[in-house]
């Protein structure tokens, strides 16, 4: 059997969701909304399903969705994208990220990753025989350590994979940080896989900037989006990659060998979603910002140290002020079993030694009454 896969455990999201179920806990762990996505998007998918759009669609995606991805890129970021040669639709961002890594990495190539990191990144880099180079952000501000990032790049660097807006930190990379990454990519002739699944979930006037929009980056970036996050439909698993026409053939060949195609009816629904009016996208971030504020205020009142979150579904909290006797893993377990509220220990997002072990991540993409009930349960427990 594959030693690498045998050596990793079941994903923390599944582990904590199972524990939540077992104890009847409110699940603020795994990041999924407890409300449905827009009705017109769901209706469009249902109509396509009933219309007999149920056989293999084109390998790179149905034309309507590829066109919608291209239009969305122009509308929000001023990017000119050829829908026939620069878009690949995948079965979720998870597949998209794997396909992009497969497209550029050869065994022995180095790939820069930023900790804390999403749990699928490292196993895939390693399975491809590439060598991960980890650079760690420091809480509580999660600023990019520039000297360390520059030191992680070298003659063998082929790519960087990073996430903005970022899970689990809620960090949105600044224009200056992106410019620094762009300069390193230029200098080393490297590519970027940009996990931008939370692109529409930014708060307090923070704007998401795709690295791809910076000078010289159009040919170097593979930009990944997800219908799961943009339309609150995480179970659909429809992702989309935007990349230069020089990269797209390899990305498409990776997709061809992973899943080949993605549910055509769902793709048609997502195409309708990406064409929705500006008010939809503004409303999505406004509603999540209000939920972030609701949970952040409540957690701060309970004594948690609440770290700032500029985007995503998540806030991270420092549990030290609570005086709990144990690390983040013990805390999240006790919180689930005793308070009946589930959070995710942030050490799960670290692969190297010496990770901070006093942070818990809470997802706020839940109904207000659910957030209030979770806070009430924690108040009674603490
Ligand atoms: N990247 C990040 C940072 C995520 O949080 C998620 C969440 N599921 C994904 C990728 C995967 O997205 P999808 O469900 O579209 O595969
Ligand atoms: N992205 C989601 C999170 O971070 C979970 C995805 C998953 O369950 N694999 O909570």
Notes on the structure:
This is Aminotransferase. Keywords: Aminotransferase, Pyridoxal phosphate, Transferase. The protein is of the alpha/beta class and about 375 residues long. It is about 40% helix and about 15% strand. The longest helix is centred in the last third of the chain and has 25 residues. The chain is globular, with a radius of gyration of 20 Å. The relative contact order is 0.18. The mean pLDDT is about 95. The site of glutamine (GLN) has 5 residues, from loops.
Distance between the termini: 45 Å
CATH second-level architecture of the largest domain: 3-Layer(aba) Sandwich
Total strands: 13
* Helix and strand composition category: alpha/beta
Uncertain parts:
none
How confident overall, as mean pLDDT?
Answer: 97
What is the helix content? 40-55%
């Amino acid at each position: 059997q594959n030693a690498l896969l045998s050596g990793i455990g079941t994903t923390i999201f599944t582990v904590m969701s199972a524990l939540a179920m077992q104890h009847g806990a409110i699940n603020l762990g795994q990041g999924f909304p407890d409300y449905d996505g827009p009705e017109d998007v769901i209706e469009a998918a249902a109509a396509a399903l009933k219309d007999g759009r149920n056989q293999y669609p084109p390998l790179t995606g149905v034309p309507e969705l590829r066109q919608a991805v291209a239009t969305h890129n122009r509308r929000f970021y001023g990017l000119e994208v050829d829908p026939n040669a620069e878009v690949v639709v995948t079965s979720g961002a998870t597949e998209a990220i794997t396909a992009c890594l497969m497209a550029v990495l050869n065994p022995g190539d180095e790939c820069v990753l930023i900790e804390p990191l999403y749990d699928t990144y490292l196993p895939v880099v390693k399975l491809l025989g590439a060598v991960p180079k980890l650079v760690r952000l420091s809480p509580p501000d999660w600023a990019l350590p520039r000297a360390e990032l520059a030191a992680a790049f070298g003659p063998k660097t082929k790519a960087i994979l990073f996430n903005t807006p970022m899970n689990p930190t809620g960090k949105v990379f600044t224009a200056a940080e992106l410019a620094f990454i762009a300069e390193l990519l230029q200098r080393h002739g490297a590519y970027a896989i940009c996990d931008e699944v939370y692109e529409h979930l930014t708060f307090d006037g923070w704007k998401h900037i795709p690295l791809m929009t910076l000078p010289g980056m159009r040919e170097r970036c593979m930009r990944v989006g997800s219908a799961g996050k943009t339309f609150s439909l995480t179970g659909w698993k429809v992702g989309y990659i935007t990349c230069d026409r020089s990269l797209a053939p390899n990305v498409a060949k990776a997709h061809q060998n992973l899943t080949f195609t993605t549910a055509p009816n769902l793709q048609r629904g997502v195409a309708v979603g990406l064409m929705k009016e500006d008010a939809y996208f503004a409303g999505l971030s406004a509603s999540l910002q209000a939920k972030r504020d609701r949970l952040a205020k409540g957690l701060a009142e309970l004594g948690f140290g609440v770290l700032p979150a500029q985007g995503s579904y998540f806030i991270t909290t420092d549990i030290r002020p609570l005086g709990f006797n144990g690390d983040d893993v013990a805390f999240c377990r006790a919180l689930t079993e005793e308070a009946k509220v589930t959070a995710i220990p942030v050490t799960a997002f670290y692969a190297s030694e010496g990770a901070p072990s006093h942070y818990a991540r809470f997802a706020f993409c839940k109904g207000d009454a659910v957030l209030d009930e979770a806070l009430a349960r924690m108040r009674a427990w603490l």
